[in-house]
Amino acid sequence: MGYTAAGKPGDETVQRILVVEDEPSIADNITYALQTEGFAVDWCATAEEALRILASSAISLVVLDVGLPDRNGFDLCRDIRRTSEVPIIFLTARSAEVDRVVGLEIGADDYMPKPFSPRELAARVRAVLRRAPKGEAGKGSPPLRFAVDAQRMRISYCGETLDLSRYEYRLLELLLRRPGWVFSREQIMEHVWEEPESSMDRTVDTHVKTIRAKLRRITPDIDPIQTHRGLGYSLKETP
Ligand code: CA
């Protein structure tokens, strides 16, 4: 489920807004209000689809409903924040949710309690985009390359779920925590292999190699993992 509504055709300065909302009537109203304001709108109803769209398109801002059918909007927000600074405005149905948005450091930029007027939301979108760093608001954030689903211990890459072993998952998840940070082999070992395992399994280099092979199947020309001779490994900061 979902659709894409273009802004002015051929106009590359049009900012794309992703609306993640499972109630079609609300989504319709929001879409209409945002388009009236000159935004292009992508709509989807599930968290899974939202991650796929974020991985493949330059989105300037996300309007995110807290209650989604497949996942909690807060979890989705945390996942998005692992790799992207795209501004996020929450749509909340209950005051208890407002407390969480305001009280927790989940990385949201603003929220709208339901019911709200779509025009008011459009005004909030404008205000948040004005606050956002220029590069990001202007061009849209870089596509979300990785998305971590910690509950299921899954990582998707460019919208595709990777088939990772437990150790591969833990290794890649560690690198994803701090892109650009060089983790030594010792640090990786300590994190990934908590319990004593057979020494055959404890080779960091071997696991990096298998992870790289799995990523290469999806993007043959890009290696997001960087080797630092004598130091360790890092995840490249920019895609
Ligand atoms: Ca909902």
Summarize the structure in words.
By secondary structure, the protein is α/β, with parallel strands linked by helices. The protein has two domains: 2-131, 3-Layer(aba) Sandwich (Rossmann fold), CATH 3.40.50; 162-235, Winged helix-like DNA-binding domain superfamily/Winged helix DNA-binding domain (Arc Repressor Mutant, subunit A, Orthogonal Bundle), CATH 1.10.10. 41% of the residues lie in helices and 20% in strands. The protein has nine helices and twelve strands. The strands form three sheets. Strands 1-3-2-4-5-6 form a six-stranded mixed beta sheet, sandwiched between helices. A hairpin with a 3-residue loop joins strand 11 and strand 12 (232-235). The longest helix is centred in the last third of the chain and has 15 residues, at 204-218. It is elongated, with a radius of gyration of 19 Å. The relative contact order is 0.11. Residues 134-142 have low confidence and may be disordered. Bound molecules: calcium ion. Calcium ion (CA) binds next to loops.
Keywords:
Rossmann fold; 41% helix; 20% strand; alpha/beta; binds calcium ion; three-stranded antiparallel sheet; Arc Repressor Mutant, subunit A
In short:
This protein is of the alpha/beta class and 239 residues long.
List the helices and strands in order: EEHEHEHEHEHHEEEHEHHEE
Strand content: 15-25%
Basic shape:
elongated
Which strand order do you get reading across the main beta sheet?
1-3-2-4-5-6
The helix-and-strand class reads alpha/beta
Small ligands present: calcium ion
Mean pLDDT: 83
Evaluate the radius of gyration. Answer: 19 Å
- Count of helical stretches: 9
Q: Quickly name the level 1 CATH class of the largest domain.
A: Alpha Beta
User: The CATH topology of the largest domain is what?
Assistant: Rossmann fold
CATH architecture of the largest domain: 3-Layer(aba) Sandwich
